[in-house]
Amino acid sequence: MQNKYRVSFGNASAKRRIKGDSPAALQCVGAASRQLVLPEARECRDNENDFRKGEVRMFAFYILVAVAAFAVIFLIGVYNHLIALRNRYRNAFSQIDVQLKRRCDLIPNLVETAKGYLKHERETLEAVIQARSAAVNLHAEDTSNPQALKNLLGAESNLTSALTRLLIVAENYPELKADKTMMQLSEELSSTENRVAFSRQAYNDAVTSYNIARETFPNVVVANFMQFGEAPVFEVESDEDRKNPKVSFG
Predict the structure, then answer these.
(1) Contacts with 81 (C-beta within 8 Å, 6 or more apart), sequence order
(2) 66: in domain
(3) Residue with the larger pLDDT of the pair 59 and 41
(4) Are residues 143 and 44 part of one domain?
(5) Residue range 183-189: average pLDDT?
(6) CA geometry: angle at 117 spanning 112 and 124, to 5°?
(7) CA–CA distance, 169 with 160 (Å, rounded to integer)
(8) What is the tally of structural domains in the chain?
(9) pLDDT over 60 (residue 220)
(10) Residues ≥6 apart with Cβ < 8 Å to 149
């Protein structure tokens, strides 16, 4: 019994009949079947590839979102840490500032009392007056600015030096040492200087912690971008200044 096969090739309308179960006939049937199936299979593969590409893009998107979220959280953490340290050293300075202003308030009476006895020490008295004036003027500036704060601390250090020299000179005048007003002022000044020394140590410790934090990588990137300036240390200029002025005339 002979079978007849009709084979279509693509979009051509030509047809031919192949009789018998010859290999050529079977080959033609297979080719025809493949041509009928290929377009659907190709479309299926394309859809599968598109789906996989979509999954890869979505996965990459999630990775980018996670990285961005981590970066934002990290930046916020560094910023808040620097803010906390900066507020700590500013608060420590405010404790010094109170005592420094008190010292400035005591100096005019101290100088006025000493004038009557130190007539030949005019240069020493003027040095104290000028140093106090410079410090008072700088107290009026915005000390949240690191440079302004540095200038103020430098002026206060100069005032300490001038005041120390005045008190050393006063030791050579017994009548001045015996003056009741001078004795009272000396006690108040000595107490104030002790508070300044204690507060200065606390301030310098806070400044050191802040500066280390802002200079450590990667914090330094955030610090520079957000303009966290270096905090100045309250230093004394000479070995004499490292010792609290001895102003006890009793």
Answers:
(1) 213, 219
(2) no
(3) 59
(4) no
(5) 87
(6) 70
(7) 14
(8) 2
(9) yes
(10) 93, 143, 231, 232
